[in-house]
Amino acid sequence: MPMRSRNVPRDAVHHPLFARFYARISVTADVKGGIGAYRDELLAGVSGRVIEIGAGNGLNFARYPSAVSEVIALEPERSLRKLAVEAAQRAGVPVDVVPGAAEALPVKSEAFDAAVASLVLCSVRNLPRALSEIRRVLRPGGELRFFEHGLAAGRGMARTQRALDRTVWPLLFGGCHTSRDTIAAIEAAGFELGTYRRFSVPEGGIRLPSSPCVLGVARRPFATD
Q: Which residue range is the domain that position 36 belongs to?
């Protein structure tokens, strides 16, 4: 069972307007924008005990393979958490939705076989701390499955992303930052990178600041002498 933290309020994140917008647009994006296929790829082959960071409205829950024994799903935003609880009731594996922030995960160390982060690392308040917490709660050899958008390879788009992140984008989109370098941050947190690929969403469509994406796996290393 999750271990509640006294240091983190139950509603560490509160973006009610964005939450309502996201709850609508994310369902459409899954079906019409192809995001659902990326979620399937993200979760393929995952097993054991899983912690999901920033579960949103629970769109991943129905996609977990039967080899998953339990999912602890953290969602700090109240209205999204309510939707996630409803989605958990329809899931094919046990899912427990709890409040909590990525920077202070309310669970024991080395308690999970895998961690899942999908379209959430862009919005955590402290990315290095959040990744450090994810590493803490994974057993040695445990996997971090990630599907995130972030810094573009092209200089022009990257400049646009950085400019928007300093001004209006986080205010409009629930704290989202489009210019974070997810791969560099994962490596800096001490993970071993596995396979990953970069692409644009929608593939072949109009490129937005949030279009550049990366999907892959990293592992917490085993301790060495």
A: 16-219
Calculate helix-pair angle for 35-43, 16-32, nearest 10 degrees: 90
Any idea what the CATH number is for the domain that residue 83 is in? 3.40.50.150
Residue of 83, 82, 58, 63 whose CA lies nearest to 72:
58
Using the 8-state DSSP alphabet, how is residue 220 labeled? P
| Residues pairing with 145 in the sheet | 116, 217
pLDDT digits (tens, 9 = 90+) for 13-71: 556 677 787 888 898 888 888 899 999 999 999 999 999 999 999 999 999 999 999 99
For residue 203, pLDDT beyond 80 = no
pTM of the model: 0.90
Task: Please state, in angstroms and as integers, the Cα–Cα distance from residue 212 to each residue in 3, 66, 89, 127, following that order.
Answer: 35, 31, 33, 18
